[in-house]
Amino acid sequence: MRFFSYESRFSQLLLKLSDACLLNLLWLICSLPVFTVGASTTALYYCCLKIVRDEDRHVAATFFRAFRENFKQGTVLWLILLGAGLFLAGDGYILYHLRQTTSGPMAVVWTLILAIVIAVAVVYVIVLEYVFPLLASVSNTNVAMLKNAFLIGTHYLFATILVFAVHFAMFYAVVALFTPLIVFGEGLCALISAWLLNNILIACSGTPEDAEEGESA
């Protein structure tokens, strides 16, 4: 039957879902040392962009090649973002409790500072969403990667919100609704995000400041 043929949309969907499961497993294994999360996430997005563009079906081989080739820069960017994230989380926790335990003018001061930290956290999330897909698409310096991730994320705000919603929905579904969905986890999130961001990354690969067109792996 054509419905079950290799070229049918149903079969291609099943193939992409199986790729998402495999990529999720590879991403989890390669992220276990924690400091390798950046290289692992870059490799994940590199593979997902290849799948979306129908350029490569050798998922495991492509993943490990991209992991090796982006290991240094992906790790540096991740450690920078990890440090910034821990700093923001610590500040937010302290400021929240200061706000809860004070009153009067000082409560207003702590509230204003907390609002600033929240605004910075939004910027942080935008950069986190785009920096690894961008690293999987172009070659550039670490500073330019972070800067361009923010510029692209704010310019294409609707796509940014959608990517965040995809990850939040998966997290909520796994935690509150159906835990076995974890087999898809970040693999499916990255695949959907790659589909959402594909045209944006193609359009921006040569336009952000100092970006060099081309693939990094």
Topology (elements, then pairings):
Elements: H1 9-31, H2 37-52, H3 59-69, H4 71-101, H5 105-135, H6 142-155, H7 157-177, H8 185-204
Please provide a written account of the structure.
- This protein is mostly helical and 217 residues long.
- Helices cover 77% and strands 0% of the residues.
- It is built from eight helices and no strands.
- Helix 2 crosses helix 3, helix 2 crosses helix 8 and helix 5 crosses helix 6.
- The longest helix is centred in the middle third of the chain and has 31 residues.
- The C terminus is likely disordered.
Compact description:
The chain is mainly α and 217 residues long. The protein has helices at residues 9-31, 37-52, 59-69, 71-101, 105-135, 142-155, 157-177, 185-204. The protein is globular and about 70 Å long.
Q: Supply the number of helical segments.
A: 8
The tally of strands reads 0
What's the assembly state of these chains?
single chain
The run of helices and strands is HHHHHHHH
Q: Helical residue percent?
A: over 70%
Average per-residue pLDDT, rounded, comes to 85
Give keywords.
disordered C terminus, 217 residues, single chain, 8 helices, mainly alpha
